[in-house]
Amino acid sequence: VGCDRSKNLVDICGEKHFQAFVCDALSVPIRSGSCDACISIAVIHHFSTAERRLATIRELARLLRPGGTALIYVWAMEQEYKNQRSKYLKEKNGSKNKEKEMNTGTAQSDQGLHNSSQDSAWSDQLHNGLKDESCGAKPVADFRLPVHTNRTSFHSQDLLVPWHLKGGTKKKEESVDTVLVPGGSKESQELSPVFHRYYHVFCEGELEAACRSLDCVRVQKSYYDQGNWCVILEKL
Fold first, then answer.
1. 3-state secondary structure of 85
2. Alpha-carbon distance 154 to 111, whole Å?
3. How wide is the angle at C-alpha 162 spanned by C-alphas 143 and 80, nearest 5°?
4. CA separation, residue 164 to residues 103, 107, 161, 167, 171 (Å)
5. Compositionally biased, Polar residues: which spans (predicted)?
C-alpha cells in the first residue's frame, strides 16, 4: 500500500493497479501497529522544522507492529563522502538522460533536476529561523533561503531546489518563475514554469540522532548511500 501527498502520482499508481491513497506523512490514516514494514524515501527532507521532521519519524513508527521495520532515506549534506563523489555530482549538464527527459517533457526526480540561470538567485521566502549550523553550513543572509545550483555541493542545510517543468501549463493562481528552454528551432523554444521546492539536507548523524531520540524504536543500521543518509529502524 502506497501513499503520497500528490493526487496525480497516486492516480498513476491506480492506473497501474497498485493500492495507493493521498495523505500527509504527519497523519497517515492507517491503524497503529498494523504494518510489518514501512518505507520513507525522499520525504522527510521536505519538512521545514526539526519538530516536524521528528514528528514524521514518530508517525512512521506508530504504523509498525512490534518487531516491524522501517527504512528511511533523506538527502545528505555530504555529497562527497570518504573521497567519493555522489552520483548526483557526477551527472554533468547535457547528459543523455537529461536531454531525454527535457525532450519528453517530464519533470525529473528529487536528485535529477535541471539547471537554470536563476539557480544562484535568492528566494523571497522567509527562513523559518530553525537553522542547524552543524557540519559547516553557512548562515543564510537576510532571513532568505538560498536557491541551490544543481549538480553542485551544498553550502546550506536549508535551501530551495529549482524544479523545471518542461512544457507545463500553470494556473492563474500559481506564482512561478519562468525560464527560456533552449531548443533546436525558434518554434521549439518556450517558457516553462520553475517551482522552488524546500529541502533540509541532513548532516552525518543527524537522521540517526533524531531516530534515537524516540524510545519506541531501535536503530538497526545507519549508512550512507549515493548522497543519502539512510536508517533502518525496528519497532520495540
1. strand
2. 13
3. 85
4. 13, 6, 10, 9, 15
5. 104-123
Write the CA distances from 219 to 61, 191, 211, 223, 230, integer angstroms.
12, 47, 7, 11, 11
Q: What's the rounded Cα separation, in Å, for the pair 141 and 217?
A: 37
CA-closest candidate to residue 74, choices 159, 199, 162, 164: 199
pLDDT digits (tens, 9 = 90+) for 83-124: 999 999 988 644 544 433 333 222 333 443 333 333 333 333
What is the grid cell recorded at 76? 545528505
Cell numbers found for residue 69: 521495520
Q: How far apart are CA 66 and CA 128, in angstroms?
A: 36
CA–CA distance, 178 with 10 (Å, rounded to integer) = 27
**Distance in angstroms (rounded) separating the CA atoms of residues 69 and 217:** 9
* pTM (predicted TM-score): 0.74
Q: What are the structural domains, with CATH classification, of the chain?
A: 1-30 (no CATH), 38-86+145-165+193-235 (3.40.50.150)
Each residue's pLDDT tens digit, 66-75: 999 999 999 9
- In angstroms, the CA 16 to CA 133 distance is 43
Query: What does R_g of the chain's alpha carbons equal in angstroms?
Result: 19
Contacts of residue 221, Cβ cutoff 8 Å, sequence gap at least 6: 230, 231, 232
| Nearest one of 60, 53, 54 to 37, comparing CA atoms | 60
